[in-house]
Amino acid sequence: MREMHRKYVFTGTLELTSGMHIGGGESNLRGTDSPVILTPEGDPFIPGSSFKGVFRSMIERIVAVIPNRNTCSLILGYDCPTTKQEDFNDRRRVSNWNETELARHLKRELCDTCQLFGSPFSASKIFFSDLYVEEWAEAIQRRDGVAIDRDSEKAVEGFKYDFEVISVGSTFKMQIVLENPSDTDLGLVCVGLNEFVSGMGGIGGMRSRGLGNFKITEMIGYELDLTTPQTLTDPQTDTNPLHRYLVGKTLEEKMTKVSDMDRFLKEHIGVLLTLVSGEENAQTTS
Ligand SMILES: [Zn+2]
Questions:
Q1: How far are the Cα atoms of 6, 129, 136 from residue 222, in angstroms, in the given order?
Q2: Which of 25, 108, 117, 200 is the most exposed place for a label (fewest CB within 10 A)?
Q3: How far away, in angstroms, is 191 Cα from ligand 1 center?
Q4: CB 215 within 8 A of CB 168
Q5: Bridge partners, 142 (sequence order)
Q6: From ligand 1's centre to the CA of 21, what distance in Å?
Q7: Domain total in the chain
Q8: In angstroms, what is the span from residue 125 Cα to ligand 1's centroid?
Q9: Pick from 82-96, 222-236, 239-253: least confident
């Protein structure tokens, strides 16, 4: 278990700027070839795991072009313990690393996206809630598709199918929690959030048909910093962040609201671009 030192929560509204299709398995009670995923109550939602996947691949694509930042999934020839698990486990066994040594090796060798999103060796620092619908047309659209032959790229005669779509304009409630991020982690998350705010997001299937586009609006950030020594001499004081966190019920009560989200994103992306590899290990303690 990791202690909690720093925590961020980002909330917002995910608004579909096109229709969306997130497949809902094989259940075919509605008589469609390709149903969308729904809650047991019949409302559309976006699984947190799908949203995490989209967020991660968006960040990986950008990390690949940032100097001194690495992602093992996209940079050819760049290996991290995730891509060389056997090799890493051999070294660990041969040198008989204790927990502290293991942690040091992971911090130095895991790529930036494995550090943030988790790896076979380390837990994720970022958590995505399922996104439940706020506003929608209360009806699922059905569209017809034509099967395309992969080789000839021509429509297959007489083979039509239909698929369900959640309509453009539907909105979903987003919540992302980030725990104990390094400056790099926080910078990367801000890069991803900024892309989504700019309407660069895409989720679900049939993307080549123009489905699954979205943007994040009304984003609010909350922060909690327990890294400075807590003065518990007056536990009643409202300015003690630990006290506020423990007795608060809402995010507003528990944490400090980011006053200017735009500036927050710019600042932390700026820090990310100025960090040079290795520098951070000396700066942050955890
Ligand atoms: Zn990696």
A1: 11, 16, 27
A2: 25
A3: 18
A4: no
A5: 164
A6: 29
A7: 1
A8: 14
A9: 222-236
Residue type present at position 130: D
Mean pLDDT for the chain? 87
* Tens-digit pLDDT profile for residues 76-127: 777 899 989 999 999 999 999 999 999 999 998 999 999 999 999 999 999 9
- Give the residues across from 216 on adjacent strands: 14
Distance 155 CA to ligand 1 centre (A): 40
Separation of CA 129 and ligand 1 centre (Å): 23
pLDDT for res 81 = 92
| Residue indicated by tokens 């049939």 | 206
Tell me the per-residue pLDDT of 5-34, one tens digit each, with 9 for 90 and over.
899 999 999 999 999 999 886 655 677 888
Q: Are 110 and 122 a contacting pair, CB within 8 Å?
A: yes
Ligand 1 centroid–CA 112 distance in Å is: 7
pLDDT given at position 280:
55
| DSSP-assigned beta bridge partners for residue 221 | 10
Q: Looking at the domain assignment, is residue 109 inside a domain?
A: yes
- Could you give the CA distance from residue 84 to residue 276 in angstroms, rounded to a whole number? 24
Q: Classify 13 as helix, strand or coil.
A: strand
In a domain, 1, yes or no: no
For residue 106, report the distance from its CA to the centre of ligand 1, in Å: 10
**Residue range(s) defining the domain that contains residue 149:** 6-283
C-alpha–C-alpha distance, residues 50 and 47, integer Å: 5
pLDDT value at residue 244: 86
Indicate if the pLDDT at residue 168 is higher than 90.
Answer: yes
Burial class (CB in 10 A: 0-12, 13-18, 19+), 107: middle
- The conformation of residue 29, written as its DSSP 8-state character, comes to T
Look up residue 74 and give its two tokens.
Answer: 């996209």
Whether residue 160 contacts residue 147, with contact meaning beta carbons closer than 8 Å, is answered with yes
